[in-house]
Amino acid sequence: MDENMEQFKRALTEVEIEADRLLLARRQMVENDKLRNGNREALTALRKHARTTKTSVPTAFESVMKEVEGPGSKLLVRELCTTCGKHDPAEKIWMMFPGTDVFARVPFHATHTILEKDLEQLDFEGKKLQSYVKEKTLSISEKGALADSINPSILRSMVTLQDNRK
């Protein structure tokens, strides 16, 4: 093959690899969003069960409300969890652990704490994936005339193309 065809082939291969990584990252973003939505639905169901909303329970300042002296000092206000509210935090709730098929009865407070931490982690991963997708998209568009001349649907079809040998 002549030199121009070899360069074209290499450039096409590079774009195909970048596009494959981009599509994989987008699929991962969709899966991440599905998990995040399920997590949010579970937290909403727990709040409904406890009859609280995200902002309905005020936070108490335990250290401010204590009497300054005396070993037998009483709390003037009991600190409330914003999700538990006045609900019994020790009540057992069935929970399926993420990524497994294991169900367990976990205390109410521990359940929503686990879900909230998972939600934070999923939000972080989602932002990381978004930045990765932006980076790959920019990388593909910076490849030059080759990347700009290939239609995105053609690029997608090249990435999903499979060899079927008979």
Q: Would you kindly provide a written description of the structure presented here, covering whatever features stand out?
A:
With 166 residues, the chain is mostly helical. Helices cover 60% and strands 6% of the residues. It is built from five helices and two strands; from the N terminus they run ααββααα. Strands 1-2 form a two-stranded antiparallel ribbon. Strand 1 and strand 2 (103-107) form a beta hairpin. The radius of gyration is 26 Å and the shape is elongated. Mean pLDDT is 77; it is low at 58-70.
Short description:
The chain has 166 residues and is mainly alpha-helical. It has 5 helices and 2 strands. Strand 1 (92-96) and strand 2 (103-107) form a beta hairpin.
**Rg for CA atoms:** 26 Å
- The 3D shape can be described as elongated
Number of helices: 5
Helical fraction: 55-70%
Structural class: mainly alpha
**Uncertain runs:** 58-70
Write the layout of secondary structure elements.
Blueprint: H1 3-50, H2 62-65, E1 92-96, E2 103-107, H3 108-141, H4 145-149, H5 152-160
Antiparallel strand pairs: 1-2
Properties at a glance:
166 residues; mainly alpha; two-stranded antiparallel sheet; 5 helices; 2 strands
